[in-house]
Amino acid sequence: MLTITKKTENETITFTLEGRLDTSTATDLENEIKDSLSGINELIFDFEKLDYISSSGLRVLLLAQKIMLKQGNMRIINVNDDVKEIFELTGFSDIMDIK
Amino acid sequence: MKSKYETDVALITVTTTEFRAVTHFHEWKAKTFPSDEQIYDTATFERDGKQYSLVHAKASEMGMTAATALTMKLIYTFRPRYIIMVGIAAGVVQSEYEEQMYGDVIIPDVVWNYSAGKFVSPEKANIVYGNLGFLPRSSSEGIPEQILPYLRQAAESPDAPGHVYIGPMACGSTVVASRELIEKQIYTQYRHTAGLDMESYAVVYAANHASDPKPIPIIVKSVCDFADYEKSDDYQRFAAYSSCEFAKYLYEKILPLED
């Protein structure tokens, strides 16, 4: 189960995720992202309430980063220890802006 | 009735990155044997309230020779039902429908050795590299038919972690960072090749030609680069992780584990 909250301020968009970003929820996030990034130059993911991320979720982050590399920046904030461990194990902590 | 197999699943890796990814997913205990320099790690997993056995070993070097030797040792020492190679591969899917991404899983239904052949003068061959012609003598091994429906089921399942391609895996002796080789030597022989690696053919060949009870070989590798000039190591940890995650899903949820 994943709750996605979207907030747009000028050319910045923030997605706040609550729950699990896995195979069953990744497509929902991917569709939201694809529908929302036109004219955006800063994309922020707030992971404060995200409990878990799987490879499917990581794939969505890669897709988002691919789009934002052409038009601006992307960063991930408020990552908890469990998700941080996944980012370190997978090397995402080296290839993305994560706090 | 006692099973003819002594271990349920054997996992085989090659690089340190792949080894570290495997260690994340289970609590492993090291196991050694006198007069065998190889270190094996054992663990268990649970399905439907029952415990099943795992063993994992890492090859001493990249390439088909070391992979063959280790596969044979795993087979004859542990008699596994399945031998699953996990790890990283180059993605080479040609598709007008979707783009292959880092971390996407490749499960071959056939593995083939593209590097076998003969170098000749260029006028004698259709594949030419500068002043050298290449006459391919490729060979292939199939993943056992009886397991393919399970692999397809896993690939299509909404619960499966990761994005999965099922298709041929090309296996060769060298690291490839050239689209020229892909275009001339890979697509011309198996147009739908999904990935490129350096060991899968060895593992499948060794399993298919082992004495009974043969294990069923499965390859689960994830895309870490696209075998071109942009090749880098940046996504190897992610690819290793996603392949292990999918392999775990396979043996914990999908593969038949009883006779």
List descriptors.
heterodimer; A: alpha/beta; globular; B: 259 residues; alpha/beta; Rossmann fold; three-stranded antiparallel beta sheet
Gist of the model:
Chain A contains four helices and four strands.
Descriptive report:
The complex is a heterodimer of chains A (99) and B (259). Chain A has helices at 23-36, 55-71, 81-90, 92-95; strands at residues 2-9, 12-21, 42-53, 73-77. In chain A, 31% of the residues are buried. With 99 residues, chain A is an alpha/beta fold. Chain A has a four-stranded mixed beta sheet. With 259 residues, chain B is of the alpha/beta class. In chain B, strands 1, 2, 3, 4, 5, 6, 7, 11, 12, 13, 14 and 15 form a twelve-stranded mixed beta sheet that branches. A three-stranded antiparallel beta sheet of chain B has the order 8-10-9, with no helix packed on it. The longest helix of chain B is centred in the C-terminal third of the chain and has 19 residues, at 236-254. Chain B has helices spanning 16-25, 64-78, 148-156, 179-186, 200-208, 236-254, and strands at residues 7-13, 29-33, 36-47, 50-58, 80-91, 105-107, 110-113, 117-120, 127-129, 132-136, 139-142, 164-166, 169-171, 195-197, 216-225. The termini of chain B are close together. The A-B interface holds A 22-24, 54-56, 58-59, 62-63, 86, 89-92, 94-95 and B 20-21, 24, 101-104, 158-163, 234-238, 241-242, 245-246.
